[in-house]
Give the backbone structure.
Amino acid sequence: MGERYDAIVVGAGHNGLVCAAYLAKAGRKVLVLEKRHVVGGAACSEEIYPGFTYSVCSYVVSLLRPQIIRDLDLPRFGLSVLPLESTFTPYPDGRSMMRSADPAATRREIAAFSARDADTYPIFGKAMGQLARFAKPIIDEKAPDPMSWKPAELMQLLKMGKRFRDLGDDLSLLQYKLTTMSAVDFLSEWFETDELIAPMACSGIIGTMLGVKSPGTAYVLLHHYMGEIDGSSRAWGFARGGTGAISMAIARSAEHFGAEIRTNAGVDHIKVSGGEATGVVLEDGTELDAKIVVSCAEPRLTFLGLVGEKELPDEFVTQLKRYKLRGSSGKVNLALDRFPDFACRPGTGPHMRGDISIAPSTDYLERAYDDAKYGEFSKKPFLNIVFPSLLDPDMSPEGKHVMSIFVQYAPYHIKEGPSHWPEKREAFGDAVIDTLAEYCPTLKDSILHRQVLTPWDLEVEFGLTEGNIFHGELSLEQLLFQRPAAGWAQYKTPIRSLWLCGSGAHPGGGVMGAPGQLAAKDILMGGAC
Amino acid sequence: MGNAYVIGGGANGIATAITLSMKGHQVTVLEARPEIGGRCGLVPDTTTVQPWAVGELGLTLEWADAHPTTLVGADGCRSISKDDPNVDAWRQHVDSFRDVIVDLTTQVAPDIRRGGALKTLWPALLSGMKLGRALGMELARIGPLSAEDWLDEWKIDRSTQAALVQPALRGAWMGPRSPSSALAVLFHHALSGTRIEGGMAALLTALQQRATEGGVTIRTDSPVASLRIEGGRVSGVVLADGDVLDSDLVVSTVGPVRTLLGLVPPQDLPPPMYDSIRHFRSRGIVAHMECSLTQPLFDGSAHIVVADDTAMVERAFDDAKHRRMPRRPTLEIFQANDRARILIFGVAHDLDEGWSQATRDELQGLVLGLLSAHGQQDAIGEVLVRTPADLEAEFGLEGGHLFHGEFALDQFLSFRPHPSLSGHTTGIDGLRLGGCGTHPAGGLTLVQGVLAGR
């Protein structure tokens, strides 16, 4: 029998750390266990090639909740977010478009393609801003249970209903369309230029095994606009020191409040006795006891991997087994000898200091998806690129650069079977570089080092089941009161004293920290520890 | 009660006329083509026709169990029978939603606008409550799923799945891997089950007879050019030959887009209506082939799906999506009395190279090749292929879409065709919408004929 903690958090992903920090701040004795040698999970920075720091997986700060930044005093612990405010899209014909925070410049850029779309763009932005204001509380509150008669749940539902009604007919219809339509269909109601629709639609497919023309992909467009209304907190950006710096700041804050964090401490299983979690057993056999166990791991891994089927109700096991993970993306990180100019717009100007999308047309994106549908990686993938070294010179030696390339589609389920990914890794990396070389002719000659992460690698290395970066598809039937399973969307689980706090819980993935914070809030409110 | 005109002499048009005549109107149906029935003859599937609507219209028809579907795939020809325990279990699951889906389909769709009539909400709410907690949650879960994922959960093999999804996809712009295609499949199967004895011909005969009894005049060869609107009110119908028919009540069953953007003079269309309807999606995805048969196709079954598995259906959808000639279309065949009517799935209405005699011939060759590959070359006699463009030109189907608009989460129930066109109204006094482009979705149900007429 080891020491007894109030709470043991399994996994030091950013959500696990947020949860631990809140619990520790409330005076609980908390232990965080991390399998890897660094904290952060998929939000980590590592010097893979000497002198070059990669944000290995997650590469932008998306919607990190402002109140978490405040509550945990993250700037004091080293968090500094640099704005990432533009999207640059090059096209194969040599044209390009940059949309940025400067409305006049954006207008000129779009007008080169369509004057009508240039006029519509700010109107669209305004409508989306209004919807984002409606939707924002949803990610800041736990998901209400529509089938519950508890007064608190009913009140929350009524409030949500009232906010929806207050939107008025036009906006509430727009919200409904946003939730149900495909990104391309939705955007086509506003814009006529495919060159504009394609890069905008991409934000709807990141991390999902769906195409821009699949119903339900419009919703994530909204996230883009939620960031903007967080205002000065700069919810969209790039963390100085890479994404790992966010996790480091949260970890330092958690430790400041008294939490203990152990790395190289993989959990073998969660101890369950009489339907109640009592602690964990580490891979080295160490037993640790706690009043509650909070898992930041993905739900299927948590329950089927760490708890075991026999401890769980059959119905819940069925729900977990059909929970869709289906990773669809990979990552390529490059260390570069010199800056690889984009032929259509050379130099390291402002257009290179935001994100860069290789998404020249909606057909291109759909073809990329078609490959994945039938079990192959995209021959011509959608790419989302950031040059961290332009934003934070400390990421690479002077004059040299780091290029972070998010790649889609790389389906976990390739037709040969996922375990064959290692054989395809380099071919996959080549497809990415070849695609990029069409836009950056000098790229190939400037590569010093290349790290290719396939969904298989994400699973093996980071515990992301099936390589899903969001711990589960962000599809309509896996959101809100159904994430990860109907009836179990409020961080509690069928195992007493076992809680969820990762991206597999409401409101889902991205470096938001919201699941960790909301779980901690519920744990404390219920007096669970 | 004055003169009322129904534009379009399809099954729904006649049904609408019957309903109006029962309310005491003097009704005339205006049909552009030489005969009534619209495109009904092309898709002789009566399984989605709702017995409730048939009862309301006072039609005398005999019902029978729907014909079993035969699947022709890579591993030959087999009947999708109830013997497959997985299919059977799934069908029972579908049955548990049937009452509620039929309810929702046969009531006026709730007016969900802010100032909407509350009384239209109650029936839907009450129906929903019939489901109970578990099924309600399940419906919320199934709705956004793809058909393939849903049927996988029931452990139905993917070739059998093809036979189950194909009939539902003719009305949508989706593949079996598109999210929310599960809902299309659920709706289709919950609404079908029985067929009309004698098929579409019997239905049309019964409709025509009932219409005649009710004093309805049916004018064929009478294409409508436009509507005459004065001060926000319908005042008449202008025929293509210049004749003007005075009326203060017109129900158009030729599709919401075609009605509001084609028949209503642009200056008379209220701007909000223009915004409501211009984005309504009706991208046709099937072509049609009609042929005489020298011997029965395959096992002679009345309903045949030709597809290897859902992946083949999905690839056919991909071809339509990319506006290219399908490489291997999937087929849904209806055969009776030495004639076959074949729906060719995966055919873009907006083919990149455009529809012409040459592309039509190419498509015909593809289908005949596919049938030959299955050993059916000797069965086919005379052939007539209609591309989505032909369907649009000949039958006035917007985008060549068989049901005047796609089935989609944002285009069904109260959203069909748009919340502001709720209850079959148009914002123009005296002009109402009927036909498949209005609530409910799900193919030919005849429900519109009852609801639009009221």
Q: What stands out?
A: The longest strand of chain B covers residues 286-293.
